[in-house]
Amino acid sequence: MAPSSSSPGSGTLPLLRSLLLLTLFLRLDTPLRPAAAAGHDYFDALHKSILFFEGQRSGRLPPDQRLHWRRDSALRDGASSGVDLTGGYYDAGDNVKFGFPMAFTTTLLSWSIIDFGRTMGPELPNAVKAVRWATDYLLKATSVPGVVFVQVGDPYSDHNCWERPEDMDTLRTAYTIDRAHPGSDVAGETAAALAAASIVFRSRDPNYSRLLLNRAVRVFAFANRYRGAYSNSLHRAVCPFYCDVNGYQDELLWGAAWLHKASRRRDYREYIMRNEAVLHAGDTINEFGWDNKHAGINVLISKEVLMGRAGYFQSFKNNADGFICSVLPGISHPQVQYSPGGLIFKAGGSNMQHVTSLSFLLLAYSNYLSHSGRAVTCGSGVSASPVLLRQIAKRQVDYILGDNPLRMSYMVGYGDRYPRRIHHRASSLPSVEDHPGLIGCKEGSRYFLSPDPNPNVLVGAVVGGPNVTDAFPDSRPFFQESEPTTYINAPLVGLLGYFSAHR
Prior knowledge:
This protein has a single domain (5-34, 48-499), classed as Glycosyltransferase. Helix content is 46%, strand content 5%. It contains 19 helices and eight strands. The chain has helices spanning 12-29, 42-55, 99-116, 124-141, 155-159, 184-200, 206-225, 230-233, 235-238, 249-263, 266-274, 294-306, 314-327, 352-372, 386-401, 425-428, 445-449, 479-482, 486-499, and strands at residues 5-6, 97-98, 147-152, 174-178, 337-338, 344-345, 375-377, 383-384. It has a three-stranded antiparallel β-sheet. A three-stranded antiparallel β-sheet has the order 2-3-4. Helix 1 packs parallel to helix 15 and helix 4 (124-141) packs across helix 6 (184-200).
């Protein structure tokens, strides 16, 4: 049975258990802090987390580009298909533009601004620019009705080389979904990204905002009408890199949720209510990332319930409460562990993507609960207050920034000790300025295998992070630990925005 919510202080026993849980959590945190620590500079980390996206830019770089060791790249993307697909982001340490994680990154950057932009101070314009760099590309990718360009670059030829994006001579194949080859997952996420970004630009650029929302409506209608997984339509191109193993139904509901938030149209509300059975409690209750939107949908929609505007969405609130209870330290759940140093750990792939995404949801839900004067009561009688949820999220951020057994910041360029040999082609190869000549496909291998630090510092990049025992190999070949991704940083932007103003 899903847990129910209650007001803070409603009963002595739940309150005592909540305090005991908070004490346990703080005790776990305390030994990891240096005795004379003055705390983290969250604003500096925010600045760097946004700067990272400039290092991931594809296309013609603008005059205000701040990471100067990067140069123009992939200027003919889309030409073989008769369209302009320049721009957008490389998702990680390779040179492919994967549309599925790029769209998710855009959605989470937008959500970060929507919920926490007011505390980002002078970094807010840079965060908005990061969103626009993505949405300008997504508009190009959805410019042809009934078609979505979902990837540029052949992943096998790309992963067979270690070369700078500025030198790319691998296949830049443009992959599409259409009526006969559907991809409701990537199209649903693209619709969510466009709708979320339309909220970001609503007052900043109303015309652009309307363009984004109208395109989101069209892309969602396409995703919903022509149903199927893009992994089936484009299996060789997307698997095993960003193969959707979770199905496309959650992306359709996610897209509808963001369209409802952006447009307030009744048909999206009705769509959500008709399809709420997609979100079943159980193994997926604490999943949130580019492939699985379950926890994110529940938290996003629950705000409507907590604000007293949408009692008909109560089941999503129940699921969101269940998500909260499943990630609390000290409460056993088979899919969520904590390392000895206190880091959230979920098996499979780059772990830090789970850390930042789940922490973002904890913080967002904490704020929603605070504004409604509520807490979450878990099955054992533990009361998870908004303060506790913020503390757990902050503990994860502090771990990333250096409060961990290795005393290492997992954000490149933050602090004195951070990963120096990250799995990232552009960072690990000499810049065009330092080495103007072409570095061919296999010529880059010696840099990949070198024990030397990367010559170009990809400031703000957060790597996949340590394993469940808090061990970390600062080595390029260990890509799950040493590779940064845009979807690790996107939710972290919101977290750092909040903690830069609320310590």
